[in-house]
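A student in our group prepared the protein record below, which I am reviewing. What it holds is a sequence and that sequence's fold in token form. My question to you is simply how this chain folds and whether the tokens agree. Do not assume that whoever made the record got everything right. I have pasted the whole thing underneath without changing anything:
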Amino acid sequence: MNFELDEDHRMIADLVRRFVEDELVPLEAGVLDRAIAGEEVQLTAEETERVNTVSRELGLWGLDAPEDVGGHDLPAVAMVGVNEAMGRTIVPYTLPPDSPNLRMLAATVNDRQREAYLAPYVAGETISAIGISEPGAGTDPAGMKTHAVQDGDDWVINGRKIWITKANRADFTILMAVTDREKGARGGMSAFLVDKDAPGFQVVRPIPVIGGETLYEVVLEDCRVPGWKLLGTEGQGFAPMQLRLATRRAEMAANAIGMAQRALDMMIDYAPQRSTFGKPLSERQTIQNWVSDAAIKLHAARLMTYDCAWKLDQGRDTRTEVSMIKSFALETAWEVLDHAMQCFGAMGMTREMPLQQMAARIRLMRIYDGPTEIHNWVVARNLLGTRA
């Protein structure tokens, strides 16, 4: 059994790591300053243009996109290394296009949609969002109320979506809706491509969350969508949505490992330099335990994530493994960051260091795309055979 990345994939991960260190980490001070000033945690237009130019020139766009639309078609295993490297910075930047939505699109688009939506998305010409969660229907898709009915050649959608990232600037939203109320999530859920200017589509409010991020709520009132923008097969939207969620959760696990690894590296660098009561922190057993526990758990989380990604590439059912890594990697990162902040003492509490921003991100990630408790329940349910 080979636990090493292919040389080509390792070189790409190393390239992304250098891009993060050279281009993104130097921007962290400005991002933190804007957060301290109460602004949203984001890059300026000039900074975004700069990193877009550099990352495009390095060939880092469309890494896991299909080759027939200009991508590199990297497997999920290769993307673990890429996403771990991207997790090492607090700078909110995604290498275009966003992998989870990309994977869902690539698995479902027809020829017309490929040209109109997938190709521009891979080229970085458009931004996407996804609308799944609703007030009262987050983790459980069976509670989804947003519904779509056919009206001639069009679909008319009514409902409300919440916790949507980038809804305010997305060119289109992949929107989940019930098309057969009796079947619900089991054969009655469909996906639609809803443009930002679609009649009846409204972004009604921003929702600020911890860490300086903002999510959005969307309302659809008789939102009319042309029939050709049904994504995939009517009633069969649940499986592609699960592919999207699996991709996202694997990405989150790798990001969390990257954040926690950076926090561990910071502890390792700092502990020998800081002395208390005549001894460096590196000689204190508590600090030694924090460092060793972090290294052990991160090694385990990394191996689990690569294993899950390999199974995704094999087309296997990875529902249990995806829940395992979402739970274990995120909870491990939360523990490592907490200990790193404790290790740095008062400095660990300041907003001038990246630790607090990473901790805020991990705290959010422990909730969205399924809270830890739900993923633990999924693992137990699958093992015990209690799935309804």
Remarks:
- The beta strands are 128-131, 147-151, 154-164, 172-178, 189-195, 201-209, 213-226, 230-231, 275-276, 279-280.
- Residues 97 and 146 are 27 Å apart (CA to CA).
